[in-house]
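Here is a typical protein record:
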Amino acid sequence: MLFNLLTSFIDQYSFLNVFKYLTFRTGLSVITSLTIVFLIGGPLIKIFSEKMISGPIRRDGPIDHIIKKTGTPTMGGVIIIIGIISSTLLWADLNNIYIWTLIFVSMSLGLLGFTDDMLKIKYKNSRGLNAKLKFLGQLIISLFALIILINYSDHEYLYNLYFPFFKNLIWQMGLFFIPFALFVIIGSSNAVNLTDGLDGLATVPVMLVALSFTLISYVVGNTIFSEYLKLQYIPDVGELSIFCGSIVGSCLGFLWYNAPPAKIFMGDTGSLSLGGSLAAVAIIAKHEIVLAIIGGLFVLETVSVIIQVISFKLTGKRIFKMAPIHHHFEQKGWAESTIVIRFWIIAIILALIGLATLKLR
Protein backbone atom coordinates (compact mmCIF):
# COMPACT_ATOMS: atom_id res chain seq x y z
CA MET A 1 0.00 0.00 0.00
CA LEU A 2 2.63 2.53 1.10
CA PHE A 3 5.12 0.99 -1.33
CA ASN A 4 2.77 1.43 -4.30
CA LEU A 5 1.86 4.94 -3.17
CA LEU A 6 5.41 6.14 -2.54
CA THR A 7 6.88 4.68 -5.73
CA SER A 8 4.24 6.50 -7.79
CA PHE A 9 5.96 9.77 -6.80
CA ILE A 10 9.50 8.70 -7.73
CA ASP A 11 9.55 10.94 -10.81
CA GLN A 12 9.01 13.99 -8.59
CA TYR A 13 11.08 12.87 -5.59
CA SER A 14 14.12 10.77 -6.53
CA PHE A 15 14.95 9.92 -2.90
CA LEU A 16 11.89 7.64 -2.89
CA ASN A 17 13.92 5.22 -5.04
CA VAL A 18 15.11 3.73 -1.75
CA PHE A 19 11.72 2.01 -1.45
CA LYS A 20 12.48 -0.03 -4.55
CA TYR A 21 15.18 -1.90 -2.63
CA LEU A 22 13.89 -5.18 -1.22
CA THR A 23 16.41 -5.14 1.60
CA PHE A 24 15.19 -1.73 2.77
CA ARG A 25 11.52 -2.70 2.64
CA THR A 26 12.22 -6.03 4.33
CA GLY A 27 13.84 -4.18 7.20
CA LEU A 28 10.84 -1.87 7.38
CA SER A 29 8.55 -4.92 7.35
CA VAL A 30 10.34 -6.45 10.34
CA ILE A 31 10.28 -3.18 12.31
CA THR A 32 6.65 -2.40 11.43
CA SER A 33 5.27 -5.81 12.40
CA LEU A 34 7.36 -5.82 15.58
CA THR A 35 6.06 -2.37 16.54
CA ILE A 36 2.43 -3.29 15.79
CA VAL A 37 2.62 -6.45 17.92
CA PHE A 38 4.23 -4.51 20.76
CA LEU A 39 1.52 -1.84 20.61
CA ILE A 40 -1.53 -4.11 20.41
CA GLY A 41 -0.16 -7.09 22.38
CA GLY A 42 -0.61 -5.72 25.88
CA PRO A 43 -4.14 -4.29 25.39
CA LEU A 44 -5.38 -7.44 23.60
CA ILE A 45 -3.95 -9.73 26.28
CA LYS A 46 -5.76 -7.62 28.88
CA ILE A 47 -9.03 -7.91 26.93
CA PHE A 48 -8.61 -11.67 26.42
CA SER A 49 -7.89 -12.12 30.12
CA GLU A 50 -10.91 -10.08 31.19
CA LYS A 51 -13.17 -11.95 28.76
CA MET A 52 -11.79 -15.27 30.03
CA ILE A 53 -10.62 -16.26 26.54
CA SER A 54 -8.46 -19.11 27.77
CA GLY A 55 -8.34 -22.56 26.25
CA PRO A 56 -8.66 -25.65 28.44
CA ILE A 57 -5.42 -27.52 29.10
CA ARG A 58 -5.12 -31.10 27.84
CA ARG A 59 -6.21 -33.47 30.61
CA ASP A 60 -4.01 -36.19 29.15
CA GLY A 61 -0.99 -33.88 29.16
CA PRO A 62 1.54 -33.21 31.93
CA ILE A 63 -0.20 -32.66 35.27
CA ASP A 64 1.74 -29.50 36.12
CA HIS A 65 0.37 -27.85 32.97
CA ILE A 66 -3.11 -28.04 34.47
CA ILE A 67 -1.81 -26.24 37.55
CA LYS A 68 0.51 -23.68 35.93
CA LYS A 69 -1.15 -22.86 32.61
CA THR A 70 -4.88 -22.93 33.37
CA GLY A 71 -6.33 -19.46 32.87
CA THR A 72 -3.66 -18.25 30.44
CA PRO A 73 -5.44 -16.56 27.50
CA THR A 74 -5.15 -18.15 24.08
CA MET A 75 -5.71 -17.04 20.47
CA GLY A 76 -2.56 -14.91 20.57
CA GLY A 77 -2.25 -15.81 16.91
CA VAL A 78 -4.65 -12.94 16.28
CA ILE A 79 -1.91 -10.55 17.41
CA ILE A 80 0.66 -12.23 15.16
CA ILE A 81 -1.60 -12.25 12.09
CA ILE A 82 -2.52 -8.58 12.52
CA GLY A 83 1.20 -7.74 12.59
CA ILE A 84 1.96 -9.88 9.54
CA ILE A 85 -0.90 -8.68 7.34
CA SER A 86 -0.57 -5.00 8.28
CA SER A 87 3.16 -4.92 7.60
CA THR A 88 2.85 -6.88 4.36
CA LEU A 89 0.11 -4.61 3.03
CA LEU A 90 2.19 -1.55 3.84
CA TRP A 91 5.52 -2.56 2.32
CA ALA A 92 4.94 -5.30 -0.27
CA ASP A 93 4.17 -4.76 -3.93
CA LEU A 94 0.43 -5.39 -4.03
CA ASN A 95 0.61 -6.12 -7.76
CA ASN A 96 2.46 -9.35 -6.89
CA ILE A 97 0.15 -12.39 -7.00
CA TYR A 98 2.42 -14.34 -4.64
CA ILE A 99 1.82 -11.78 -1.89
CA TRP A 100 -1.95 -12.12 -2.22
CA THR A 101 -1.62 -15.91 -2.17
CA LEU A 102 0.29 -15.75 1.10
CA ILE A 103 -2.19 -13.30 2.61
CA PHE A 104 -5.02 -15.66 1.65
CA VAL A 105 -3.30 -18.68 3.20
CA SER A 106 -2.36 -16.80 6.36
CA MET A 107 -5.80 -15.33 6.99
CA SER A 108 -7.79 -18.42 5.96
CA LEU A 109 -5.83 -20.87 8.10
CA GLY A 110 -5.88 -18.29 10.89
CA LEU A 111 -9.67 -18.18 10.67
CA LEU A 112 -9.82 -21.97 10.73
CA GLY A 113 -7.61 -22.02 13.82
CA PHE A 114 -9.70 -19.25 15.38
CA THR A 115 -12.80 -21.40 14.94
CA ASP A 116 -11.02 -24.34 16.57
CA ASP A 117 -9.90 -22.18 19.51
CA MET A 118 -13.36 -20.71 19.99
CA LEU A 119 -14.96 -24.16 20.14
CA LYS A 120 -12.43 -25.23 22.77
CA ILE A 121 -13.29 -22.19 24.84
CA LYS A 122 -17.05 -22.54 24.34
CA TYR A 123 -17.26 -26.22 25.24
CA LYS A 124 -14.39 -26.11 27.74
CA ASN A 125 -12.49 -29.06 26.28
CA SER A 126 -9.25 -29.45 24.32
CA ARG A 127 -10.80 -31.18 21.31
CA GLY A 128 -12.14 -28.15 19.47
CA LEU A 129 -13.08 -28.57 15.84
CA ASN A 130 -13.75 -32.12 14.67
CA ALA A 131 -10.51 -33.56 13.25
CA LYS A 132 -12.12 -34.46 9.92
CA LEU A 133 -13.66 -31.01 9.52
CA LYS A 134 -10.35 -29.39 10.44
CA PHE A 135 -8.49 -31.44 7.84
CA LEU A 136 -11.18 -30.68 5.25
CA GLY A 137 -10.80 -26.97 5.96
CA GLN A 138 -7.03 -27.19 5.55
CA LEU A 139 -7.48 -29.15 2.33
CA ILE A 140 -9.90 -26.64 0.79
CA ILE A 141 -7.77 -23.64 1.76
CA SER A 142 -4.60 -25.27 0.42
CA LEU A 143 -6.34 -26.26 -2.81
CA PHE A 144 -7.59 -22.72 -3.40
CA ALA A 145 -4.08 -21.39 -2.86
CA LEU A 146 -2.71 -23.82 -5.45
CA ILE A 147 -5.46 -22.89 -7.91
CA ILE A 148 -4.43 -19.23 -7.55
CA LEU A 149 -0.78 -20.08 -8.19
CA ILE A 150 -1.50 -22.38 -11.13
CA ASN A 151 -3.99 -20.11 -12.90
CA TYR A 152 -2.91 -16.58 -12.05
CA SER A 153 0.88 -16.63 -11.64
CA ASP A 154 3.56 -16.84 -14.32
CA HIS A 155 5.54 -19.36 -12.26
CA GLU A 156 7.00 -21.59 -14.98
CA TYR A 157 8.93 -23.72 -12.45
CA LEU A 158 5.99 -24.38 -10.13
CA TYR A 159 5.80 -28.07 -10.99
CA ASN A 160 9.51 -28.69 -10.38
CA LEU A 161 11.05 -30.14 -7.24
CA TYR A 162 14.67 -29.11 -6.60
CA PHE A 163 16.93 -31.25 -4.45
CA PRO A 164 19.49 -29.57 -2.17
CA PHE A 165 23.21 -30.44 -2.50
CA PHE A 166 22.69 -31.23 -6.22
CA LYS A 167 23.00 -28.64 -8.99
CA ASN A 168 20.99 -30.34 -11.68
CA LEU A 169 18.80 -32.86 -9.87
CA ILE A 170 15.27 -31.71 -10.67
CA TRP A 171 12.06 -33.70 -10.65
CA GLN A 172 9.32 -32.37 -12.91
CA MET A 173 6.36 -33.57 -10.89
CA GLY A 174 3.58 -32.86 -13.36
CA LEU A 175 0.15 -33.42 -11.83
CA PHE A 176 1.79 -35.02 -8.77
CA PHE A 177 2.67 -31.46 -7.79
CA ILE A 178 -0.86 -30.90 -6.48
CA PRO A 179 -0.98 -33.74 -3.89
CA PHE A 180 2.65 -33.00 -2.98
CA ALA A 181 1.97 -29.31 -2.38
CA LEU A 182 -1.19 -30.13 -0.40
CA PHE A 183 0.87 -32.45 1.78
CA VAL A 184 3.50 -29.75 2.38
CA ILE A 185 1.00 -27.04 3.37
CA ILE A 186 -1.24 -29.24 5.52
CA GLY A 187 1.71 -31.11 7.03
CA SER A 188 3.58 -27.93 7.91
CA SER A 189 0.46 -26.34 9.37
CA ASN A 190 -0.18 -29.33 11.65
CA ALA A 191 3.51 -29.73 12.52
CA VAL A 192 3.74 -26.21 13.95
CA ASN A 193 0.47 -26.84 15.77
CA LEU A 194 1.89 -29.97 17.42
CA THR A 195 5.06 -28.15 18.44
CA ASP A 196 3.16 -25.33 20.12
CA GLY A 197 2.95 -27.08 23.49
CA LEU A 198 5.38 -25.17 25.72
CA ASP A 199 5.89 -21.45 26.32
CA GLY A 200 7.89 -20.05 23.41
CA LEU A 201 8.70 -23.47 21.96
CA ALA A 202 7.14 -22.89 18.53
CA THR A 203 7.67 -19.13 18.32
CA VAL A 204 11.46 -19.07 17.95
CA PRO A 205 11.72 -21.97 15.45
CA VAL A 206 9.01 -20.32 13.33
CA MET A 207 11.00 -17.09 13.47
CA LEU A 208 14.17 -18.94 12.40
CA VAL A 209 12.40 -20.59 9.45
CA ALA A 210 10.93 -17.25 8.40
CA LEU A 211 14.33 -15.54 8.72
CA SER A 212 15.94 -18.27 6.61
CA PHE A 213 13.28 -17.94 3.91
CA THR A 214 13.66 -14.17 3.96
CA LEU A 215 17.18 -14.80 2.64
CA ILE A 216 16.18 -17.68 0.35
CA SER A 217 13.35 -15.67 -1.25
CA TYR A 218 15.67 -12.75 -1.82
CA VAL A 219 18.44 -14.74 -3.54
CA VAL A 220 15.99 -16.82 -5.63
CA GLY A 221 14.39 -13.62 -6.88
CA ASN A 222 17.74 -11.96 -7.65
CA THR A 223 19.43 -12.82 -10.95
CA ILE A 224 22.97 -12.16 -9.72
CA PHE A 225 22.78 -14.12 -6.46
CA SER A 226 20.75 -16.98 -7.91
CA GLU A 227 23.28 -17.43 -10.72
CA TYR A 228 26.21 -17.29 -8.30
CA LEU A 229 24.62 -19.89 -5.99
CA LYS A 230 23.44 -22.06 -8.91
CA LEU A 231 19.81 -21.63 -7.88
CA GLN A 232 16.87 -21.38 -10.24
CA TYR A 233 16.01 -17.71 -10.71
CA ILE A 234 12.27 -17.12 -10.31
CA PRO A 235 10.99 -13.63 -11.20
CA ASP A 236 9.04 -11.69 -8.55
CA VAL A 237 9.77 -14.22 -5.79
CA GLY A 238 12.04 -11.74 -4.02
CA GLU A 239 8.91 -9.94 -2.85
CA LEU A 240 8.25 -12.89 -0.52
CA SER A 241 11.05 -11.60 1.70
CA ILE A 242 8.70 -8.78 2.75
CA PHE A 243 6.13 -11.31 3.97
CA CYS A 244 8.77 -13.44 5.69
CA GLY A 245 10.21 -10.34 7.33
CA SER A 246 6.78 -9.53 8.73
CA ILE A 247 6.64 -13.01 10.29
CA VAL A 248 10.05 -12.47 11.89
CA GLY A 249 8.99 -9.13 13.38
CA SER A 250 5.60 -10.40 14.57
CA CYS A 251 7.07 -13.50 16.20
CA LEU A 252 9.82 -11.45 17.83
CA GLY A 253 7.22 -9.13 19.30
CA PHE A 254 4.98 -12.01 20.32
CA LEU A 255 7.89 -13.73 22.07
CA TRP A 256 7.97 -10.79 24.49
CA TYR A 257 4.58 -11.98 25.76
CA ASN A 258 4.98 -15.69 25.01
CA ALA A 259 8.36 -16.26 26.72
CA PRO A 260 8.16 -18.48 29.84
CA PRO A 261 5.96 -17.97 31.74
CA ALA A 262 3.68 -17.10 28.83
CA LYS A 263 1.13 -14.32 29.24
CA ILE A 264 -0.71 -15.67 26.19
CA PHE A 265 -0.64 -18.73 23.89
CA MET A 266 -0.73 -18.40 20.10
CA GLY A 267 -3.30 -21.21 19.89
CA ASP A 268 -4.39 -22.88 16.67
CA THR A 269 -5.12 -19.40 15.33
CA GLY A 270 -1.41 -18.71 15.14
CA SER A 271 0.14 -22.14 14.68
CA LEU A 272 -2.02 -23.25 11.73
CA SER A 273 -1.57 -19.90 10.00
CA LEU A 274 2.20 -19.70 10.50
CA GLY A 275 2.88 -23.29 9.48
CA GLY A 276 0.77 -23.09 6.33
CA SER A 277 2.17 -19.68 5.34
CA LEU A 278 5.78 -20.83 5.59
CA ALA A 279 4.94 -23.92 3.53
CA ALA A 280 3.38 -21.72 0.84
CA VAL A 281 6.54 -19.58 0.78
CA ALA A 282 8.68 -22.71 0.35
CA ILE A 283 6.48 -23.96 -2.51
CA ILE A 284 6.63 -20.64 -4.36
CA ALA A 285 10.39 -20.32 -3.82
CA LYS A 286 10.81 -24.02 -4.78
CA HIS A 287 12.66 -24.97 -1.60
CA GLU A 288 10.23 -27.47 -0.13
CA ILE A 289 12.92 -29.97 0.89
CA VAL A 290 14.99 -27.21 2.46
CA LEU A 291 11.89 -26.30 4.50
CA ALA A 292 11.92 -29.83 5.92
CA ILE A 293 15.57 -29.35 6.92
CA ILE A 294 15.28 -25.87 8.43
CA GLY A 295 11.99 -26.78 10.06
CA GLY A 296 13.36 -30.14 11.16
CA LEU A 297 12.22 -29.56 14.73
CA PHE A 298 8.61 -29.49 13.53
CA VAL A 299 9.25 -32.68 11.57
CA LEU A 300 10.71 -34.34 14.68
CA GLU A 301 7.66 -33.39 16.76
CA THR A 302 5.28 -34.75 14.11
CA VAL A 303 7.22 -37.98 13.60
CA SER A 304 7.22 -38.60 17.36
CA VAL A 305 3.41 -38.49 17.36
CA ILE A 306 3.17 -40.79 14.34
CA ILE A 307 5.58 -43.30 15.88
CA GLN A 308 3.70 -43.19 19.18
CA VAL A 309 0.32 -43.84 17.53
CA ILE A 310 1.59 -46.64 15.27
CA SER A 311 3.46 -48.35 18.10
CA PHE A 312 0.45 -48.25 20.44
CA LYS A 313 -1.96 -49.55 17.79
CA LEU A 314 0.34 -52.39 16.69
CA THR A 315 1.87 -53.47 19.99
CA GLY A 316 -0.15 -51.74 22.71
CA LYS A 317 3.08 -50.14 23.93
CA ARG A 318 4.29 -46.54 23.76
CA ILE A 319 7.77 -45.61 22.57
CA PHE A 320 7.74 -42.27 24.36
CA LYS A 321 6.45 -41.48 27.83
CA MET A 322 4.21 -38.92 26.12
CA ALA A 323 3.93 -37.40 22.65
CA PRO A 324 4.79 -34.97 21.10
CA ILE A 325 8.38 -35.50 22.09
CA HIS A 326 8.72 -32.31 24.18
CA HIS A 327 6.24 -33.85 26.64
CA HIS A 328 8.41 -36.98 26.75
CA PHE A 329 11.28 -34.93 28.17
CA GLU A 330 8.91 -33.22 30.60
CA GLN A 331 7.90 -36.64 31.90
CA LYS A 332 11.60 -37.49 32.30
CA GLY A 333 11.93 -34.55 34.68
CA TRP A 334 13.41 -31.87 32.42
CA ALA A 335 12.40 -28.33 33.33
CA GLU A 336 10.21 -26.60 30.76
CA SER A 337 12.77 -23.82 30.21
CA THR A 338 15.50 -26.44 29.63
CA ILE A 339 13.45 -28.21 26.96
CA VAL A 340 12.53 -24.97 25.23
CA ILE A 341 16.09 -23.60 25.10
CA ARG A 342 17.59 -26.91 23.98
CA PHE A 343 14.98 -27.23 21.24
CA TRP A 344 15.78 -23.66 20.19
CA ILE A 345 19.44 -24.66 19.89
CA ILE A 346 18.45 -27.61 17.69
CA ALA A 347 16.35 -25.26 15.55
CA ILE A 348 19.30 -22.89 15.12
CA ILE A 349 21.58 -25.74 14.04
CA LEU A 350 19.00 -27.02 11.54
CA ALA A 351 18.53 -23.51 10.14
CA LEU A 352 22.29 -23.22 9.57
CA ILE A 353 22.35 -26.64 7.86
CA GLY A 354 19.42 -25.63 5.66
CA LEU A 355 21.07 -22.37 4.66
CA ALA A 356 24.31 -24.22 3.92
CA THR A 357 22.49 -26.11 1.16
CA LEU A 358 22.34 -22.86 -0.81
CA LYS A 359 26.10 -23.00 -1.33
CA LEU A 360 26.89 -26.72 -1.07
CA ARG A 361 25.76 -27.85 -4.50
Q: What stands out?
A: The longest helix spans residues 22-50. Residues 2-356 form one domain. Residues 192 and 355 are 20 Å apart (CA to CA).
